[in-house]
Amino acid sequence: MITVIKIVTWVLIIYMSFMTFMYVFQRHFTFAPSPENPFESDYRPFQPFTYQTPLGLTLRGLRLFPQAGKPTIVYFHGNAGHLGDRVFKADSFIPYGYGFVLVGYRGYSGNPGQPSEKGFYEDGRTVVNLLLKEGVRIQDIVFYGESIGSGTATQMAVEYPQARALVLESPFTSAADIAKRRYWFLPVDKLMKDKFQNAAKIGKLAMPVLIVHGDKDQTVPYEQGQKLFSKVVSPVKQFVTVKGANHGDMYDFGTGKTVYEFLSSL
Predict the structure, then answer these.
(1) Would you say residue 4 has pLDDT above 80?
(2) What pLDDT shows up at residue 1?
(3) Which among 91, 115, 132, 265 is placed 20 to 30 Å from 53, CA to CA?
(4) Residue 80 in contact with residue 246, Cβ under 8 Å?
(5) Which residues pair with 75 in a beta bridge?
(6) Residue 38 has pLDDT above 70, yes or no
(7) Cα–Cα distances in Å, from 44 out to 11, 27, 62, 83, 240?
C-alpha cells in the first residue's frame, strides 16, 4: 500500500512539474521566429518601413504601395520563417495594382521584443492605424492571415469592421485547439496564454470572408478550416479546398489566383 502511494505521489509530482514547465516556457513552443533578418536582403519593389508601437517598440515591415484606387492587402504571416519568405505571394496581386503590406511582428524578422498574442494584436493595430493616418481608406484594406497570422487578421477584422474583406489561409479555430492535439493530457484551456480564438470571433463579422485550406495539411488539420468556416455568418463568404496542398505550399496549387478572383469580385 505504501509503495502504491509513493508511486502515485511521484507520478503527481512529475506531472505537476511538467505542467509548471509548460506553463512557464509555453511561448517557446507556441512561437517559432526565424533568427534571420530579412532586412539584410533586397526585396524590391518592396520597401522597408518602420512603425512604433504604443509601448515604444520600433518594428519594421515591408510594403508595396497600391496604384490609385486599388486595395491594400495587410498580410500577417505564419509561424515559421520571416516576412521575407512571403514576398512571393504578392506576385498574384502586383500586376493588378494592389498594395501589399507585410507586417513585421515583434520578435520576428530581426525585430525586437517577445512574441505574444496581445503583442501581435498591438503590432497589427499599429500598422493599420499608420495606413489610415496616411490616408488609406479602411474600405480599401484587406486583412490576410496565414496560419497563426489568422489570429491577428481575424482580430483586426473585429476591430476594423469596415475593412473590405478577411482572407484566411490554413487557419485554425483556436491555437488552443491545435495545442490540445499534442498535449491532450494537459488542461490546455487553463494553461495557455495565447489562444487566438478565431472561432469565437469570426461570427461577429459582416465583411466578406474567404477561407482557403489544403486538404493534405499536416500542421493545421483541414477540418479546422471547415469548422471555422461553419461559424461565418457574413452574406459574402467562400471556403475553397486546395486539393493536394499541405501547410506551406498553398501557392504552388493556385491559391494566389483563388484569392485574387475572390477579392476582384467584391
Answers:
(1) no
(2) 60
(3) 91
(4) no
(5) 102, 144
(6) yes
(7) 57, 33, 10, 14, 31
Digit-coded pLDDT (tens) for 96-149: 999 999 999 999 999 999 999 999 999 999 999 999 999 999 999 999 999 999
Size of the chain in residues:
266
How far apart CA 109 and CA 3 sit, in angstroms, is: 53
Which residues, listed in sequence order, are joined to residue 167 by a DSSP beta bridge? 144, 210
User: Which CATH superfamily does the domain covering 31-264 fall into?
Assistant: Alpha/Beta hydrolase fold, catalytic domain (3.40.50.1820)
Whether omega before 45 lies within 30 degrees of 0, making that bond cis, reads yes
For residues 89 and 251, is the Cβ–Cβ distance under 8 A?
A: yes
What's the pTM?
Answer: 0.94
210-234 residue pLDDT tens: 999 999 999 999 999 999 999 999 9
* 18 pLDDT above the threshold of 90: no
Residues whose CB is less than 8 angstroms from the CB of residue 154 and which lie 6 or more positions away in sequence, other chains included: 143, 145, 166, 168, 171, 196, 198, 201, 202
Buried b / exposed e over 190-219, threshold 16 CB at 10 Å, is eebebbbbbbebbeebebbbbbbbbeebeb
Structure-block grid coordinates of residue 151: 489570429
Strand 209-214 vs strand 47-52: parallel, antiparallel, or unpaired? unpaired
Lookup: cell for 78 = 505564419
For 199, the enclosing helix (H) or strand (E) is helix 198-202
Average pLDDT of the chain, as a whole number: 93
> From start to end of the chain, where are the E strands?
47-52, 58-64, 72-76, 99-102, 141-146, 165-169, 209-214, 237-242
